[in-house]
Amino acid sequence: MTAPLHEAHPTGAGRALPNTQQGMRRRNLASVMHTVSAEGPLSRAAVASRIGLTRAAVSTLVDELIRSGLLEELGPERPGRVGRPGSALAVSGHGPAGIGAEIGVDHLAVCAVDLRGEVRARAVRHGANRGRAAGPVIEELDALVRKVVAEAEREGLWPAGLAVAVPGLVARDSRTVVRAPNLDWRDTDLAELLPADFPLTVGNEADFGALAELWLGDGTPRDFLHVSAEIGIGAAVVVDGGLLRGTRGFAGELGHVPVEPNGPECPCGGRGCLEQYAGEEAVLRAAGLEPGEDRVGLLATRAAQGDEDVRRALRDAGTALGIALTGAVNLLDPESVVLGGALAGLAPWLLPSLEAELDRRTAGPACPVSVSRLGPEGPLLGAAHSVVRGVLDDPVAVAERA
Amino acid sequence: MTAPLHEAHPTGAGRALPNTQQGMRRRNLASVMHTVSAEGPLSRAAVASRIGLTRAAVSTLVDELIRSGLLEELGPERPGRVGRPGSALAVSGHGPAGIGAEIGVDHLAVCAVDLRGEVRARAVRHGANRGRAAGPVIEELDALVRKVVAEAEREGLWPAGLAVAVPGLVARDSRTVVRAPNLDWRDTDLAELLPADFPLTVGNEADFGALAELWLGDGTPRDFLHVSAEIGIGAAVVVDGGLLRGTRGFAGELGHVPVEPNGPECPCGGRGCLEQYAGEEAVLRAAGLEPGEDRVGLLATRAAQGDEDVRRALRDAGTALGIALTGAVNLLDPESVVLGGALAGLAPWLLPSLEAELDRRTAGPACPVSVSRLGPEGPLLGAAHSVVRGVLDDPVAVAERA
């Protein structure tokens, strides 16, 4: 159940590789790609010492990866060193690219990320998607994808796959949005709506946001709880560097953890769920504001201006988050909690009461809470990078499709 | 962070094996052992077809496992079939055994389990351990271990390792009981107290109980939440067939999930923790009973006799469990919840209110709740079987020590 999201990806055969010569070769190709990606540029000898294979074995693997366009030689290392000069290896900036897309409540976004992790093309369209049928939204998204792919191709890249982040529950190992209350979508199969030009993955935005934090964050541990919000409150649990996805793919529903057992009714059927205290709409209501388009911006501006109603509403939301997170921390024992997405922008006013509540209630030393630097960019970047990681995890599959 | 508990075991090198010929051989030996253990007796040809290797490759592996005393040949299969008669293979009933031990609040228990999963020796001592220093308790435990090992050796077995289940928090990858409030132990290193005759693992009783459920339960899924109780309430999260252990090894502290944010104070520092409503002592108090030695037995007897105070106390405890489990199910999306340990014996009176609460509060179809058939035997069996699994996972390491 804990697996990087890209395992649902057609190229992500990483852990399923059999214990045969062929399976071993594929695993070793992946080790070379991951090592060069994480630590490159590196010589063949350095790669060999890092992954514990002979120099000769590594050379064979590297030659194959260069032929497939996944690695590049940067030319001979500077002279003056002992022995035959080696050539430094780097992952290719002209090979496959991961295309990430995000369907937000108020925007659509697409980007292309190369194997080096750089964003090489990007397109955004603002406008409310809430209540619109999936068909026209996906048509617009597809137009953005085509634009970004064309731009990437002009730079010598080719799309290895498309990953779409959605604000809703996605059935495990499927491309079906089971429920996206803030879009009003139900059982929507994106694979039916999007042209099948390259492999497609669909995932929850909180999950992709957490993966972005894992892969791109500054010193993010391999075990953490990532809490984010757009209109609802989402969370994702990262365990040993992989997502905890849940039996149906629905893990991380922090928004429906009971905070006050007899609190207000929630559309989910429960009572006193966290979302009733710390969801954007609940906070706006508590502060006496109308929900508009830039909800987080409005709250952040008012709080910064010293609006006492907004500050009190955010303080109370922080307390509710602290209660729900106490339960989560007791169950999961993560190394840290990371506030991402819209919550990152509201952190200055949420954190004091949140941390006080968590400290007070947690047995032993309290779990540290940090704020994501990626903020609302997380889900889009996480989606694109999940495709890139899929390539690193099984370079053979991608090379065969190229 | 999700890993079978036996990975902390010195023999449990399973996942860390490198992608070399030697690593591949060790992984394939483990595949043969697991296949024969799960489906045996099997012929060499059947094993080969199950694990996807050639018959010749499997024969080499099998010969090595027979020489090491881990597999046995049961003699030729019945004649009349086409081709050279094959010999059926089974895991050995005379090789290594797993020794499991349990330090309970009111008892000590030890057993030996062979590679076939059969309990071959067992010893129990009743008497309160609460408030006793660790030294004398471990001395008594060691005497029971020696007795069980001697009995196992008379049957031709030899101890591959000892795993000890304790009612407290155990630091990850260590043998140190960080905190066992119901024994009044703190930072107790069992490795210092127990003679080092064979490899030692120490784990939380709820974790071992969950593993027993996973390995021995009837149709237990690979993703579930196991809730148990002795005096405190413990839980363990099993994800994809492995324990979710947490950064420090403390995951599964369901007992300190807040159920009523402003409820009674808990010794943990929190307020309104589940243990304040559904712990044995809280239930006894609510029913107007004094805590004695057989607390669960007393509650079960009174409830069965129709004692309305006890039934009401258990009903309320079920409601509190339902609230805490709603949060856990939302976060983890398990396939089921299993009530084990002492809770299994009280299930008839806990379940109705527990399930009603969970159904009412859970988005989508409610998570099914089942009752463990292992009950209080779980932790002891789980401990012994964790040693056995360690042998199956890396037969080479054990054979080298034999």
From TrEMBL, chains A, B:
<dbReference type="InterPro" id="IPR000835">
    <property type="entry name" value="HTH_MarR-typ"/>
</dbReference>
<dbReference type="InterPro" id="IPR036388">
    <property type="entry name" value="WH-like_DNA-bd_sf"/>
</dbReference>
<dbReference type="Pfam" id="PF00480">
    <property type="entry name" value="ROK"/>
</dbReference>
<protein>
    <submittedName>
        <fullName>ROK family transcriptional regulator</fullName>
    </submittedName>
</protein>
<dbReference type="InterPro" id="IPR036390">
    <property type="entry name" value="WH_DNA-bd_sf"/>
</dbReference>
<feature type="region of interest" description="Disordered">
    <location>
        <begin position="1"/>
        <end position="22"/>
    </location>
</feature>
<dbReference type="InterPro" id="IPR043129">
    <property type="entry name" value="ATPase_NBD"/>
</dbReference>
<dbReference type="InterPro" id="IPR000600">
    <property type="entry name" value="ROK"/>
</dbReference>
<comment type="similarity">
    <text>Belongs to the ROK (NagC/XylR) family.</text>
</comment>
<dbReference type="Pfam" id="PF12802">
    <property type="entry name" value="MarR_2"/>
</dbReference>
<feature type="domain" description="HTH marR-type">
    <location>
        <begin position="32"/>
        <end position="81"/>
    </location>
</feature>
